Amino acid sequence: MRKILVTGGAGFIGSNFVLYMRGRYPSDRIIVLDKLTYAGNLENLKSLASGPGYLFVKGDINDSALLDGLFEKEGIDTVVNFAAESHVDRSILGPKAFIETNVLGTFTLLEAARKNWSAPGDKRFLHVSTDEVYGSLGDKGFFTESTPYSPNSPYAASKASSDHLVRAYFHTYGLPAVTTNCSNNYGPYQFPEKLIPLMIINALKGKGLPVYGDGQNVRDWLYVEDHCRAIDTVLSRGRLGETYNIGGRNEMKNLDLVNEVCSIIDERLSADKSLSVKYPFKGSRKGLIHFVKDRPGHDRRYAIDCSKMEKELGWRPEHDFNSGIRKTIDWYIDNPGWWERITSGEYRDYYDLQYGDRI
Predict the structure, then answer these.
(1) For the chain, how big is the Rg over CA atoms in Å?
(2) pTM of the model
(3) Does the annotation mark 155 as catalytic?
(4) pLDDT (tens digit, 9 = 90+) per residue, 106-136?
(5) Residue 357 domain-assigned (yes or no)
(6) Range(s) of the domain holding residue 167
(7) Domain presence at residue 10
(8) Of these residues, 131, 226, 251, 299, which one is catalytic?
(9) 279: which of 103, 136, 154, 215 lies 20 to 30 Å off by Cα?
(10) 12-68 confidence digits (pLDDT tens)
(11) How many domains does the chain have?
(12) How many CA atoms are closer than 13 Å to the CA of 321, on its beta-carbon side?
């Protein structure tokens, strides 16, 4: 039985991972540590019953005393670090929080593991990172594990710094660490500041669909369940000290993605009278698309080469974009209460600040 500390476990990817692990490994004890900032939502984990297999702790990964207490009391032998400020736009508006959480927080967590894992044993520290540390690609080529780091936003720079810290702790202290760098995730429970949930929710409500620049920026899209399986695979069979790139092999231009979301929602609502009454709209929702001023330092293209994962560990994404986006749209249609409760207050203020003067 593993004692797994999942930091940032109430966020989008973290909560999906916790739910996945709870279902796959019911005998493991999972301790979720989350600060519950705007993007952390305990409602994501409401299906988990309290008991010997699960514990939630509200706290900050910068709190070394809290971390030491958890390692000692719970006997933590596995760490999966999702805790991060993760939205590029917010990092441009306020980079300090990204340094505090992504750099100093990762350092504090590494120190806690180093101090508390002095005794021999089967331990593992998995650090979840992003393809954005590599910078921007041209029209051809892919990011590999040997691609030089070239971050272009405060967010990417903070994640690059944390990746280097994890590498240093492996080589200097022998900390049993491994790093994963993933492409853009999508799926259930994603906070609506991100492109796909923002477009789904606005399209349902008949609101404008703001697309940065000319909409030709390219991203590789990874369904979150595939990402969770990949992390599980690296935890189980990945080589310590290594980096593994995790991608969906689903490259798409932003404008094409938004058009596809509109087409599926139009199709879905026209086939269901109750939904067409709930979300009335005349014509195609593609007419809601409008271009806004591009964000500073907007990388043109990301694309992951995940052949190392495929050849060495036998993992492959199971969802193409069509199947993943349909499951995602259906989830948002079926769970309006979840997103209606969070598309107000602080998020509403952020949305107005981010897009109001760009339209």
Answers:
(1) 20
(2) 0.93
(3) yes
(4) 999 999 999 999 877 899 999 999 999 999 9
(5) no
(6) 3-189+221-248+301-320
(7) yes
(8) 131
(9) 215
(10) 999 999 999 999 999 999 999 999 888 888 889 989 977 779 999 999 999 999 999
(11) 1
(12) 18
